[in-house]
Write the structure tokens for this entry.
Amino acid sequence: MEKIKMTTPLVEMDGDEMTRILWKMIKEELLLPFIDLKTEYYDLGLEYRNETDDKVTMDSAEATKKYGVAVKCATITPNAARMTEYNLKEMWKSPNGTIRAALDGTVFRTPIVVKGIEPCVKNWEKPITLARHAYGDVYKNTEIRVPGAGKAELVFTAEDGTETRETIHIFEGSGIIQGIHNTDKSIESFARCCFNYALDTRQDLWFATKDTISKKYDHRFKDIFQEIYDAEYDEKFKAAGIEYFYTLIDDAVARVMKAKGGFIWACKNYDGDVMSDMVSSAFGSLAMMTSVLVSPEGYYEYEAAHGTVQRHYYKHLKGEETSTNSVATIFAWTGALRKRGELDQLPELMRFADLLEEATIGTIEAGKMTKDLALITSIPNPTPLSSEGFILAIREMLEAKLAE
Ligand code: NAP
Ligand code: MG
């Protein structure tokens, strides 16, 4: 069989620990035999980040702006223990944070739905994609613990010195105060990322805040979304047959629990933090959750939502067999390849991405899966496989599909 051609390289961001091992296996068994794979390689493994003073991370983000599509392996975010383990010059920042800031992007997380791994919420038939605004609010707060009686005020001083003041509260005794902010620019980027991704995946977009209580702060989010929608997206949404839907956050939560799925739920920073963990755990497994960073200009970076699976890596280093789930990392590759195919008009590459996803899901539905899934599946007598065994089983099914 002739290998499938690519025209533009993908930005390939390699990573750490067990996911780095899976990365190599996926390339060798599931990609290189079938595709004339073109990538521009960036090693975001912690050792090389340290060697380059983290320059490699910025370079990979710049390359993503140049080429438009990247695929990323999970990476270590250093903490005190990693400083000694890797003898680091500095406690380098999270690569995901660096890339997200460089691209001004929003992260969309979607569960991979498989028969036999049922969501806890029985009416969820299709995936629910969660988009979390990643700037400001309580994550960039300023707080004061009020020691006793006094007056708390909110003061804004404009560049020309003009002051705007509001009384927050007249304290009769001790208490607490918090100041939070956001910027129109960040909210606008978030809105455009969400509208673009909804169009891209042809799914309805839900957005919710508490604007009835927060009449200026949350209301500004609601207004910015609506203004951008009316000016730039209304016609496109109608043409695509999808809907933008705004409601109150408590109403959204109630509706999500009763919904069938198949939509994108955009959340403010805190709501997204809380709700993404609820939605992802209710769908079954972190190892089955994909993640894509979308910039307002339409650059895409695909990855798995889970980390480097450190515990499994230490077993691997001791020579023990591992059973690490590669599904989300495979779907990061298929997401990136399909997007590359779409942008470069390579239908064969897009078809390959579809078939690799079908083979991956088909392998699990045939009862062959890694241990994490074998523990939670409703399929009777599943066959638990090793990390490599699972990838080889997918290869077998992929080859059969490609031969059809
Ligand atoms: P983790 O790598 O997601 O793993 C936590 C646990 O979840 C694992 O020990 C394993 O449970 C289970 N798990 C996660 N993914 C799995 C998979 N693919 N297959 C099977 N089981 C899976 O999180 P962590 O251990 O907290 O973090 C490890 C490193 O990853 C840290 O250095 C962190 O900085 C980094 N991290 C990176 C990213 C990213 O790059 N996007 C995201 C999160 C964390 P059992 O041990 O019970 O089998
Ligand atoms: Mg959280």
Remarks:
- The pocket of NAP (ligand 1) is lined by residues 74-77, 96, 286-287, 303, 306-311, 324-325, 372 (CB under 6 Å).
